[in-house]
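Cont'd.
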Amino acid sequence: MAITLGPNQYGKAEVRLVTVRRDGPVHHLKDLTVSTSLRGELAATHLTGDNAGVLATDTQKNTVYAFAKEAPVGEIEDFGLRLARHFVGSQENITCARIKIDEHGWDRIGVGGEPHDHAFSRSGDERRTTAVTIQGGRAWVVSGIDGLTLLKSTGSEFAGFLSDPYTILQPTHDRVMATSLVAQWRFLTPLAEGPAAWDEVYAGVKAQLVKQFAVVQSLALQQTLYHMGKAVLEEFPQLAEVRLSAPNKHHFVYDLSPFGLENPGEVFHADDRPYGLIQATVTRSDAPDPGPARDLQQGWLA
Amino acid sequence: MAITLGPNQYGKAEVRLVTVRRDGPVHHLKDLTVSTSLRGELAATHLTGDNAGVLATDTQKNTVYAFAKEAPVGEIEDFGLRLARHFVGSQENITCARIKIDEHGWDRIGVGGEPHDHAFSRSGDERRTTAVTIQGGRAWVVSGIDGLTLLKSTGSEFAGFLSDPYTILQPTHDRVMATSLVAQWRFLTPLAEGPAAWDEVYAGVKAQLVKQFAVVQSLALQQTLYHMGKAVLEEFPQLAEVRLSAPNKHHFVYDLSPFGLENPGEVFHADDRPYGLIQATVTRSDAPDPGPARDLQQGWLA
Amino acid sequence: MAITLGPNQYGKAEVRLVTVRRDGPVHHLKDLTVSTSLRGELAATHLTGDNAGVLATDTQKNTVYAFAKEAPVGEIEDFGLRLARHFVGSQENITCARIKIDEHGWDRIGVGGEPHDHAFSRSGDERRTTAVTIQGGRAWVVSGIDGLTLLKSTGSEFAGFLSDPYTILQPTHDRVMATSLVAQWRFLTPLAEGPAAWDEVYAGVKAQLVKQFAVVQSLALQQTLYHMGKAVLEEFPQLAEVRLSAPNKHHFVYDLSPFGLENPGEVFHADDRPYGLIQATVTRSDAPDPGPARDLQQGWLA
Amino acid sequence: MAITLGPNQYGKAEVRLVTVRRDGPVHHLKDLTVSTSLRGELAATHLTGDNAGVLATDTQKNTVYAFAKEAPVGEIEDFGLRLARHFVGSQENITCARIKIDEHGWDRIGVGGEPHDHAFSRSGDERRTTAVTIQGGRAWVVSGIDGLTLLKSTGSEFAGFLSDPYTILQPTHDRVMATSLVAQWRFLTPLAEGPAAWDEVYAGVKAQLVKQFAVVQSLALQQTLYHMGKAVLEEFPQLAEVRLSAPNKHHFVYDLSPFGLENPGEVFHADDRPYGLIQATVTRSDAPDPGPARDLQQGWLA
């Protein structure tokens, strides 16, 4: 028995990159948070502190900013692929690079009914995300949305569930259902030839998620999630699977009976913790193995 | 010399109230965070623990929920006034009540081009706010907006400033300017007769703030704030003053010259801390004294 | 009637300054968050964007770092006074400067029973604070502690309170009481001659706050706060007043009766929101006016 | 090709459980955040909304509170095992349960040199953690520490690293190194017979992490992490592997040369973002497969 180095990675996390593209007087904004992560033959730095095979995380940061200037950033998936291919391609000992990017949205300010050339307001708290992995000449792309906060004030039930000695919850056929959804969709590998329609897929998936949330008569949050994922896969053949993580943000009917008041689903307390947490994957039966795509930074720890 | 009780107040903070108003199948949502705060003759509880004059904060919370059922919540200013008047009116020893409310926005989800009856998505991170004070039969209302995040990619300068031995900043005539604005507008007291146009004022002030941010050629963030406040007061005669607090969310041009790249205002690092913090009041010269309106919970501590 | 500029201030917020003082091999650490704020004749920059009287916030930041090198930082109150006096003393149009400093604690790591020369671990979440104001040749110092989280599992009652139609809370003579205390103590002005015992006062006040929390049989959180403040003023004649802000972090006895279990104060749910918020001042009857000391950044907005 | 349900789980997240054990007048406090997560045959609820096999997350919450009363909570690993075994053992369709627990520390307040019976102060921001998994009659335990914030003011180097066209970082043989460490240690499976020494392992591992941080002359954060993990495995034969995730919390020497000042490692800017992120596993060469132990909630998403 020996003690050895196991899986390891390193990089620069949360590089806050903002770019302005100037088409004459009309400016275009990109606001990204970029994290890099490299893997490969890195035993020397761990075992002896020999850094000859280490590209400083400061350099990784510089690369993000420089690449944003050397060519247009474009869609976050393409920018991630450029960066990941560069890190793997330029260093012999690096065999795997993962780039994670969050995109923060901005809307063009309207003045006098016209969109302004160079003034913007933040469009909300939700973020478009991607996690790109390059390894062994192959690319995996897992794109997503984070913080999509949704609420329906009816059209949600929860009944017919198990009862054990600790069960006191009453079944209901009309409740508020709210969540702050995280969704991730994995593209089929190998990626299709030609320019990928990352933007169209993002817009289309988001529209499906929102629509299914609204129109499905929910019998369980699990069922809503499955319908979301199924609708997405049916519409987008380029996707292998969809993962959904949904906190059940409880809205409790406030008991007004001590004050002589009825409360037929009108006044709620929005609770913070604890919350239900429902997580589901919807997948194609013939989806290829995710390879390293699901083994990213966030999954590093238990 | 004696040691005595000085200013004091107590209440329930951050009651998370969500209401659903049902107009047949069409539902209307209100999502509020309500904080109550009472002042008056409260020496006994402090000095001896005699609570005979103390309305429990639990009761204050119940009152918020019950009032939301007893009559429609309506606009947050009106709901705050109802609550504040109740607390002062129903307890002899309470002479001042302040209600602070944040309203979180929701947009109706569109499905098939039609707004959905009962499904909503969170509209962003910014919050509509109010702080209502009742004292001595008078009412003060300070309404506002919190977290209005704006960015302009040009049209902002900063030059001609003081130079001292610690000054190395270079003047610029073209920079990114970004902020997450907090604005508060105080209504004239006594409040106008008849239904106040709280909603219209909110929408109009927000539109002015955003417009002035976009159209003013900024020579300093201070100047932008002043123009914002001035435009608001010119449009809304019912307002006494506007307070503005604006972090200068620095976007630094990233130095790409070591890599042989020019960077004419295209690639930026969005920094977290430190940040400039610019705060200004714009007021009518004949504005009445704010009375207790500016001495709220948040101003309690240095 | 005219529209005019009202109260205003500007500065650099949250400068993250860490210093290492090297006494030979033994190092001493200071970890501060410093915010500067200047007031005075600043109409030009607001009204016309003329910045001739504006010291850039970048310069203010540089000054913080340079001053940390030009002389030892020392106690945060002294460092704040040095900075505030510099800003007022070196710029004609600046008549008031406020410096707010939070100090983050570090403990020396022990190795083999000995304190290590240069390795430290963060000592907790609480922060020592000060807010120093210089105006008209006078100095005000309000020091404090933030985030002092305390809990007692008995020795706390709440009974004999008002009952109104919205009251359902039951009186109790044994409850958990927990808070995350913010305390601020204002020094008498003019400050005493000679070196002020800022450190001793800090340690002594903190010890009193903690002790009173533990030993007072609490009949109300208000009463506990008053006893805290009174004990502090009795011990420290150099203080004019103490302000205390205490969230009542509710710990609710969990109802286990549906499961056939008694719960005599053993199992609790620690709730997030809402929370009671109790705020009180204890003062000397002859305390001088606080002047600008209580009108700091945090109190700017309603 | 078909669209099918893939991996899924559900539970109650962040149950805030506080218990008071009363040994006569002396009270003992436990402050835990508990999250439950169940897996198994859950297709029906996803596909059709048939909840007959679903134990409500509300019930899972009740179980946490009830179990805290039915027997002493004890060490968090044992409490997690009790809960996980219950969920798997009492429901036919549940084949895997994971319980994640964070423990928040409290110190007994000292009054007059004596530890107080029932008054406590929060001991800091770091948390003791565990993630327990029961599946197929086996148990996996991954315990850890979160938020262990450490800084050394010398004894850290970074030199000899790769240089590419984007490298401008200068090698250094004396820098500040700071991190907020997350460490997780996986116990060998099957777990040893008899009472496990969870507490002793926790205390011993934490001591080793802190000691190695202090005494290793660091040539790279990677090397420090490896030494930490190796020392832990050498001391604790019951552990299979250690995972370490360490943000490199950069402290940049502030450039004071424009002000005519030297700065030989005395005045630093503590930066927020971006930060290096170094992650490493140290493992026994014969460590058994982690099975489901590493596939927990936090690793769910890319």
